[in-house]
Specification:
This protein is α/β, with parallel strands linked by helices. The protein contains 18 helices and 22 strands.
Length: 532
């Protein structure tokens, strides 16, 4: 522990006083505790009783957002907790127990202890440092005697039968799939299959927690979670969408705009999901929320028939307010089709390196492989200087002869040794070695960044992989119109219409990009910035 963490753990241990029931990991932390000044203890106790969370706040200050990211630890502000707890109390005034699957310092359980004075409280948290703070808060607030703490991964948890409904409430941790072990991805896939769902191993940890809740919950239970909103649209979120529309019994989804900063240390669009287990709702309420002041009560919104939303591939369309098209303007999609670049299935193999140096250059086109290449290009991409080549072999290799065939076979043998033929993308291609890059697009556009999309005129006919979109005219278009389109979009583009993900990344799917407004072709020159 750092000196600051040592002081915070010592303060928590002093507030707990009684060490009975601590886990082994918590006991080790308490054993390292040092005496704390009585004045510091008294001040912390007073702040906790006043409704503050000095221990949780201290934890967030001592550990950076990057350090906490391995646990997905993002602490929830009071307005969100109050709104969620208010909905839960309206639904069932007295649950038998309350389960928080990622309890942190106990903010949700503190609110639950006040709202439901007779309920058993169960905290699940993988970080023993956090559970120490939770126990200290429970001791000060006086609900330690009905609190059970499990220092464990929520996916390991089993719950005994209880007489009465269980409330599942909290902020499931956000951890991207890259940081989830293979054994848990297998668990996710197998558990989803038991419920009849097709699961993607690209799912983040918050999606795992939804599925675990579906596994634990019984008819009559209910819950409310706040998570990142990305599950509404992404492919791996289909498991959540199916559960919400069916067995998990979703009743409402309230989507908080990223500008409202639902989390102090993570710029992301938040989604509050309310559910009643075992019910198959006839309607699901969906609502955009612009600020935390507008959040409570969680009862308003647009009601969408379950059949309609259950069959939709993306749910944000039910929440997004349709923009009015001003006179003289059209949607970009009326002129262009937006297509994301091809997924290679393994950039370390298919982006040209020394291993492919002898592959014929006609199979290695210059390609935009990183968004920064478009940001650096400005209005026009005019040079291949900073671009990489991508190896894009034909599906049929019979036409290759002599040295060219040997060079390609040598490269493919190397690619096989690196597992390129075994990946998901490769196994779903006509030929595992054929990436299949799209034709050059006259306009390229970044699709995910912490800024507005960058539109670039593609003067060198570069290809692009899936870090960019290509804009392809629906009808033949003059060079002057293409150039004017780029100039207009560069001067008027914003993040409006995209979706904000954890970390502040704003993402535009192709259809979202096509909804961008622009002047009609005959008027576009009148909207361009004037040269000084």
């Amino acid at each position: 522990m750092s000196p600051g963490e040592h002081r915070l753990a010592s303060l928590a241990a002093a507030l707990i006083a009684d060490g009975a029931g601590l886990s082994t990991a918590e006991t080790r932390l308490v054993a390292q505790a040092r005496p704390v000044d009585p004045g510091v203890i008294a001040q912390a106790r007073a702040e906790i009783l006043a409704g503050q969370d000095p221990l949780g706040d201290g934890f967030c200050l001592l550990r950076s957002a990057e350090e906490r990211r391995q646990y997905g630890a993002t602490y929830t502000p009071a307005p969100i907790i109050d709104a969620m707890m208010g909905w839960a109390h309206t639904e069932i005034p007295m649950p038998a127990r309350v389960v928080d699957p990622g309890a942190g310092s106990g903010r949700f359980l503190i609110a639950a202890a006040r709202k439901f004075p007779g309920a058993e409280l169960i905290a699940v948290e993988v970080d023993p440092f956090a559970t120490l703070m939770l126990r200290a808060n429970a001791a000060v607030h006086g609900f330690a005697d009905r609190l059970s703490v499990q220092v464990d991964d929520y996916r390991h948890v089993a719950l005994p039968a209880v007489a009465g409904p269980t409330l599942f409430i909290g902020n499931p941790p956000y951890v991207r799939h890259h940081n989830i072990g293979a054994q848990w991805k297998t668990w996710f896939s197998q558990t989803a299959k038991r419920f009849g769902f097709t699961a993607s191993k690209l799912a983040g940890l918050h999606v795992h927690f939804f599925l675990k809740t579906r596994e634990l919950a019984q008819p009559g239970d209910y819950g409310v979670f706040i998570t990142s909103a990305e599950w509404l649209d992404v492919n791996y979120g289909s498991v959540v969408r199916r559960m919400v529309a069916d067995g998990l019994g979703g009743t409402a989804v309230h989507v908080i705009d990223a500008k409202a900063q639902p989390f102090a240390d993570a710029l992301t669009t938040g989604a509050i999901t309310c559910f009643r287990v075992g019910r198959q709702p006839t309607e699901i309420t969906l609502r955009p929320v612009a600020s935390l002041d507008d959040l409570a009560p969680l009862g308003h919104g647009r009601r969408v028939r379950r059949q309609e939303i259950a069959s939709a591939p993306k749910w944000s369309v039910f929440i997004r307010e349709r923009q009015q098209v001003p006179a003289g303007f059209i949607e970009l999609g009326e002129l262009f089709r937006a297509h994301r670049g091809q997924v290679t299935g393994g950039n370390d193999v298919w982006i040209d390196s020394d291993a492919g140096r002898d592959v014929p250059k006609r199979y290695k086109p210059f390609t935009v492989t990183h968004a920064r290449e478009l940001f650096a290009a400005g209005a026009e991409l005019t040079t291949t200087k900073d671009l990489h080549r991508v190896i894009d072999l034909p599906a049929e290799l019979d036409a290759l002869q002599g040295d060219e065939r040997k060079a390609v076979q040598h490269f493919l043998a190397w690619a096989k040794r690196h597992g390129a033929h075994e990946g998901y993308i490769a196994t779903h291609r006509r030929a595992w070695w054929s990436v299949g890059l799209r034709a050059p697009a006259p306009i390229l556009c970044t699709y995910m960044a912490r800024r507005a999309p960058a539109f670039v005129r593609n003067r060198i006919n570069a290809r692009h992989i899936n870090i960019a979109h290509g804009l392809y005219p629906r009808e033949p278009m003059s060079d002057a119109v293409l150039t004017a389109t780029v100039a207009y979009l560069r001067s008027h583009a914003s993040t409006a219409g995209g979706r904000t993900y954890a970390g502040g990344l704003v993402k535009f799917e192709p259809r979202e990009l096509e909804r961008t407004l622009m002047p009609r072709v005959e008027d576009i020159h009148g909207y361009l910035p004037q040269a000084e």
